[in-house]
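Sequence in, structure out.
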Amino acid sequence: MDEKKYKEFKAWHNKINEALENGTYVFNFKAEQIKYCHQDVALLRLAGEKCSAEYMEKFDIDPWTEACTTASTSNLIYRRVFMEDNMIGIIPRMVICPKINRAD
């Protein structure tokens, strides 16, 4: 935190403490809840953008448009980056269902 932000925070903190000591502070739960939700959404958006940018930089894959879960993104990375060309992933017999001898 830089000095300017610290001074702003300290002023706000002193104001709240003074109001608490005087008994004049009123906590508005609904307003605080709405503010928290907006901050939460903004934080999640920024985290998602950072995650997507790193996937694009490292693997040239956009997880938001090419895969819908972390597992499918990991599978896509494996198939595009690590799996050899002209190979297919074969599921061994008896893994999915003992009565079915193929993976559909």
